[in-house]
Amino acid sequence: MGQTLNGHERPNDAASYAADVGQWRMARHRYDFDVDGGAQGAFTIFTVTGDVQAQIFGLCQTALTSGGAATVETGITGNTAALIAQTAFDDLDQYETWQDAGPEANPGNVDAAMADYFVLANGADVIFTIGAADLTAGVIDFYAFWRPLSDNGSVV
Within a 10 A sphere around the Cβ of 1, how many other Cβ atoms? Predict the structure, then answer.
């Protein structure tokens, strides 16, 4: 009997098992105001298939700006702040790590709350939501450290 890893069949032998099973993977998505725009709404940052276990955080590369009191959050459809709590745009400065409502200064500490991994079931895509006002600038690199739980589990 073989194993499936990211949709590819792998032999069920010791060498393959050691190399593939249980290995964490990383996906990155850049939200860039100049490319993606800053209108209020949700942006898909990771497309998920199947079931995965994941840890999500952002690294602000260029400070966010807004003509109003914009908020940002990361989650899934139906629970838009499930993964990263709603945060005022001006709390997220350049080179800060964003994992909760209180971004961490550089170097960003991954706190105890962040140590928890989330289970994203049934292909629940990860979304970045802008609320209350539009953004006028900013760049955030989002990172997902993940591993598949189902045969078709993947994050891109």
Answer: 4
Q: In terms of C-beta density within 10 A (0-12 exposed, 13-18 middle, 19 or more buried), how is residue 133 classed?
A: middle
Walk me through the domains of the chain, giving residue ranges and CATH numbers.
Answer: 24-155 (2.60.120)
* DSSP designation for 125: -
The three-point CA angle 4-7-19 to 5° equals 50
What DSSP string describes 59-124? EEEEEEEESS--EEEEEETTEEEEEEEEEEGGG--TT-EESSSSPBPSSPP--GGGGPPEEE-TT-
pLDDT tens digit sequence for 38-55: 999 999 999 999 999 999
What is this structure's pTM?
0.84
pLDDT(110) > 90: no
Contact 36, 43 (CB under 8 A): yes
Asked if residue 124 lies in contact with residue 76, where contact means CB atoms within 8 angstroms, the answer is yes
The torsion angle over the Cα atoms of residues 152, 85, 39 and 50, rounded to 10 degrees, is: 10
Q: Could you tell me the two tokens for 45?
A: 């940052």
